[in-house]
Design goal:
The complex is a heterodimer of chains A (172) and B (203). Chain A is α+β, with helices and mostly antiparallel strands and 172 residues long. Chain A is built from two helices and eight strands. Chain A has two domains: 34 residues; 110 residues, Sandwich (Immunoglobulin-like), CATH 2.60.40. Chain B has two domains: 39 residues, no CATH class; 150 residues, Immunoglobulin-like (Sandwich), CATH 2.60.40. Helix content of chain B is 15%, strand content 32%. Classes of the chains: A alpha+beta (172), B alpha+beta (203). Strand 1 of chain A pairs antiparallel with strand 1 of chain B, so a sheet runs across the interface.
């Protein structure tokens, strides 16, 4: 009996080393495959919840197809946003493109009017990358929108035409 | 015995690694979002929460100085406006950016016309029409507001797919509305606000 136990010991050692080597290789491969998150773009996307920055960029794309020299007020548009159930913040880049000459008051809300966030007046070039939410949402897909109320940059904040950018909000 | 154990261990390890790779390589669409942070960060080039397009809208509705006509005959005054798609990224081939427009105070079940109102007295209002065509083509087209809109977004205005696309439209006010009114009552500054609604939709 003790002889049998003794004879199994090298086998167990070999198996343990083999398993450790395989797991190590797999871990290394996974680390190699997962894209780095410390490049500049991802770092910017982190944002600070509710913090309005003065150097906000819409970052739609590279500048190759930028037609921003056209007249009128520039309005950011969105395709989708994602958050988890229970979250009280949402990563969404709301802001006033720097080429504008008017102010924005941005309201993030659901299509049914439920208000999730309302910004103070945003001057051209000001914006947020992540916003605090008035309430969290249950799992599901929502029709949401950013209501950009445009105003003159005067004390009265004289109203101008406004815009709504609709998007899908996925809550996981 | 030794061979069996090695084989079992190898099989178990292979299954674990296969599961991990499948989860990582999952592909998502707009219709099937997932909580997997690594995957949802890139959906067909669209980063959730990022600005994926930028449109330009007119700042104001400005008809300048209106003139009270001497007769009841039509006395139209027209001004142009422009809406354009300045930038876009990650728009899928089967998607488009639709733009709608309505008066700030209009509702789906209520009055859907476009108005400018006296800044000192909102009860004094004059209606104007919105066309999705340049001034030269107004005579041969109907205004958007000739047929009620059925979506809360408002009247369908145009659709964009590529950066640089532009809609040249026209606003027309008939000054005959001023005919017979007391200038003392209606004099003053007027303003009206349009709401432009944009969304990514299927073609």
């Amino acid at each position: 009996m003790s002889n049998k136990k003794k004879s199994n010991t090298p086998v167990m050692i070999v198996m343990t080393l083999l398993a450790a080597a395989i797991i190590g290789c797999l871990a290394g491969a996974m680390i190699f495959m997962i894209p780095s998150t410390d490049d500049g773009k991802d770092e910017k996307a982190q944002g600070v919840i509710g913090k309005i920055t003065d150097n906000w960029e819409d970052e739609v794309s590279d500048d190759n197809n930028d037609q921003s020299s056209r007249s009128g007020t520039k309005i950011p548009g969105y395709s989708l946003a994602v958050m988890n159930e229970g979250d009280l913040s949402l990563k969404i880049r709301i802001g006033n493109p720097k080429e504008n000459t008017v102010g924005f008051i941005a309201t993030v809300r659901l299509e049914d009017g439920t208000e999730l966030y309302k910004s103070p007046m945003l001057n051209p070039g000001q914006g947020l990358e992540e916003i605090p939410l008035e309430k969290t949402l249950s799992k599901g897909t929502y029709n949401a929108e950013v209501y950009y109320q445009c105003v003159l940059l005067n004390d009265e904040q004289t109203p101008l035409n406004s815009a709504i950018s609709a998007f899908k909000l996925y809550v996981n | 015995m030794f061979t069996k154990k090695i084989a079992a261990l190898s099989l178990a390890t292979f299954m674990i690694s296969a599961t991990a790779v499948t989860a990582y390589a999952g592909t998502l669409t707009d219709q099937s979002p997932s909580g997997n942070t690594e995957v949802i960060a890139h959906i067909d080039g669209v980063v959730p929460g990022n600005v994926s397009y930028k449109i330009s809208i007119p700042d104001v509705v400005d008809f300048g100085t209106l003139v009270q006509p001497e007769t009841q005959e039509n006395s139209n005054k027209a001004v142009g406006y422009q809406v354009s798609l300045d930038e876009v990224t990650g728009l899928e081939a089967d998607k488009q950016i639709s733009v709608y427009v309505k008066d700030q105070n209009s509702t789906l079940d209520g009055n859907q016309n476009f108005y400018i109102a006296n800044k000192a007295n909102n009860n004094i209002q004059f209606m104007y029409n919105v066309f999705a065509v340049p001034q030269d083509n107004v005579q041969t087209n109907q205004p958007l507001n000739s047929i009620p809109y059925t979506k809360t977004a408002g009247y369908y205005l145009t659709v964009f797919e590529n950066a640089g696309e532009t809609l040249d439209g026209t606003l027309v006010i008939n000054q005959a509305q001023l005919y017979g009114q007391s200038i003392a009552d209606i004099a003053g500054d007027y303003s009206g606000y349009m709401v432009f609604y944009s969304t990514v939709e299927n073609k």
